[in-house]
Fold N5-carboxyaminoimidazole ribonucleotide synthase.
Amino acid sequence: MPSLSEETGGRVERLMPGATIGIIGGGQLGRMMALSARYMGFRIGVLDPTPDCPTAQVADFQITAEYDDINAIRELAERSDVLTYEFENVDADAIDQVRALAAAPQGTDLLRVTQDRVNEKRFINDHGTETAPWKAVNSFEELDAALDEIHYPAVLKTRSGGYDGHGQTVLRSDADLERVRARGDRGGGFPPSILEGFVDFAFEASILVAGNGEDYVTFPIVRNEHRNNILHMTIAPAEVSDEVAHEAHALALRLAEGFRLAGILAIELFVTKDGRVVVNELAPRPHNSGHYTIEACSFDQFDAHIRGIAGWPLEQPQLLKPAVMVNVLGQHVAPTRALIADHPEWNVHDYCKAEVRHDRKMGHITVLTDDTAETVAGLESTGCWNDLKKA
Ligand SMILES: Nc1ncnc2c1ncn2[C@@H]1O[C@H](COP(=O)(O)OP(=O)(O)OP(=O)(O)O)[C@@H](O)[C@H]1O
Ligand SMILES: [Mg+2]
């Protein structure tokens, strides 16, 4: 694992309104970051290959190029005071190369840790926090040996590049292992991977922690429901014991301090039936499960991210009201739009993506409520999300 360098995290130069924030990646997370930044008076540049992408629509300028185009990253840095990103698969070396041109307050070690599942697991364990049992595996022989230790059921994941469950296979038996072998024999090869023990969780949860390099604050622990490996719903707050909530906040602060975090870190969790809190993975950016904070908290995850990278002070966010957030995927756009007029309680967010595709995140809806169970039932009873099978 890369050791944390001196430039990582730590005190962040304070940015004043009028300064320019350059965002690598122009999807919905960049868009919502940009909207927060605009309220504070910052200017926004975005690097994204799709002209008029969701972030560009609310930005001052777009550089239309691939995310790993070093000339484009250099141009973004030249025109910005600070660089940030909306996804973790950014070329850390490229950011290091342009750090004389623009500040990168999140540092690049955070990227190097979170874009590699092995580095990430090691970092989490080194900071006193439980993960699934795991082993790095680089060949079928190593996979066999790791299975002897970890046993079925287990999850094989590529070390880098996965999202929404892509690049991972659940292994429950030798038959599943044979299928992985056959895939390799057909020329799939064996990408650098990690084998994880399958966590028999009671439910999935997440917690956000924000930092400005010196001080760290946490958002409430929330419960997440996935369908077909994609986040479907977030219920805030999660109904958990004081012990579970305490451990979630404590581990979030340990990780944030470990990174000397600037901006937001999202932590995906498994809560087990016996009340253990196990970290699944980290995302060094705002997270889909944190969208509820826009309406439900005293300041939201995007505000916190911008304040953190701008070196502004952070106070503890307050949950103003419980909330339910549901994603609007491509197939849900037409049915939800047809019902907007009937649901004044829906806080409708549309990311304005030009192309509607099945399973593509197109928007989300947040409902503030005193009764989250009733609100979940009400949303499901609209039928808009009937295509999503319950896992
Ligand atoms: N070790 C595990 N034990 C049990 N379930 C797991 C394990 N790892 C992953 N899962 C399930 O698969 C889902 C996706 O896994 P993970 O978050 O690692 O992958 P991802 O491709 O990065 O997904 P995303 O982009 O949705 O975060 C998890 O939310 C969880 O439901
Ligand atoms: Mg995940």
Observations:
- The chain has three domains: 20-114, 133-197, 201-381.
- The chain has a mean pLDDT of 95.
